[in-house]
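New to this. Help decode the following:
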Amino acid sequence: MRRAKLALLLIFTMVLAGCLGPDTAQWGGEGIEVDFSIDETEITTNLGASESTYQNLSPIGCEIGEEVVPSKNASAKIKFTGYLSASVLYGSHDPANGARNMDTAVTAAVAIQAMPIGEARSVKDGEGARIDIKEWNVPLMPETRAGTVDLDEIDTDTDSQWYVLGLIPTTENINDGFLALEEWHKPITIHGYLISPTTVNGSAFTIDGKAQTTGYYRSSGSIAHTLTDNCNLNVGSSNRQSVYVLVDKIEIDDRVVSANGNHGDEWKYGDVPFIGRAGFITFFLFVGVGGSIGMFLLSQMIVRQGAKETMKTLLGEEGLAKIKKVATDLRAQKKSGSVTPTERKRQHEREDKAAQRQRAPAKKTSKNDDLGIAGFDLDSALSGGSSDGPTDFGGGSSSVVATQESIKLEKEMSRSEVVNSGGFAPQESWSPPPAKRERSPVSNVVSSEAPPKRKEHFSSVRSDPPVRKAAAKAPVKRRAAKKRKAVSQPEPEPEYEAKPEQFEEEDDFSDFSL
């Protein structure tokens, strides 16, 4: 909720400062451009469906002489004075809504209740005429609804007189200054020129071959345009004047929108009364932003002061003095380069982590080394399967150690093969079951159990290529296996019976004298 209020406040201040708000039609090639002079005027507009150019236009001004009359090439401007009751700004015109011809050159339209400027200034807020706009697509023909005044119903019986003006800017500053018309219910005076229905050379002004009369200067008949002594346009008996105006100056609420923008009381969008636009921005920056920062600092001071009072109540003055002394000592130690216990602990932790990272690769290497068996090359053992018999230590590509038992067993196998070589092919060598050699501790006690059988070394296990050829002769293999088994059975070792140690009767253990 507070954020929403703050956002609304910022938007409101930005609108007051002129940062946000409605925009007028563009000036230049993509919008409207007017080459104005008292003698001749040219209008180029792109606000309609396509670009339109109106040349050789004759402005009608106020000629002051024996009589004040509207005239071509007149230097004085015609005035439209009264109370601004409604307005509309145009960024473009849609022909489908009824705008056509000179309507496409209008960038703003106003409804002004005609009255002297003094009387308009005396109108209090809320007492002026209120107009409810329904649609205002055609600049000179607004559609209104119920209000204090209905512009559609104005006629000769209406008590008030009205100007309905289609405003055409003569300069870029005037075009931008139309934003001032967004502020309704203010006294206003518009200075400008009417447009003659005839061109500079006197011929009728036509568009698409049709003469233009509605909204232009009328010089004859009962509805001819006339001026007052101060160049104000008379509304006439119909109580409503609807015309196009080439605007040269606007006076609204004691501010001025001039053609060149150099008037002393020049109106600027976002102007604030009394202090002005620059004053408001300065006020907002110093008072608004600066005040908020100051309030924040003040609130922090109040909170800290309250915390100090609470500590003084809980700890007492002696406790506060000790705390201040500790803080002072810590600052002094920090300046002198001393390290606090907390920092020292963090430093040790960082050093321990660094040491662990350095030791991590060494651990991996030791694990890989432990996987191997000392004195055994697995790759050489696998690749050296074509050797015919065991070799001595380091004798071949492999570093496998041939034990005495395996050598003895190999010799016995070769003898049995020589004895039984009558028509038999060489057979697969016997593979003793793998077992570990266990060493028993030396003891003087004779056990009655038989000593364990010797277990063969794993290096005696071999694979011989000729075995694959002999594998096809199944009967021969069985007979050879039986013989090999008979031959390879180790001779049983004699069993020793444990006899209890006997002492001679002649030994006399009764005399313990030395």
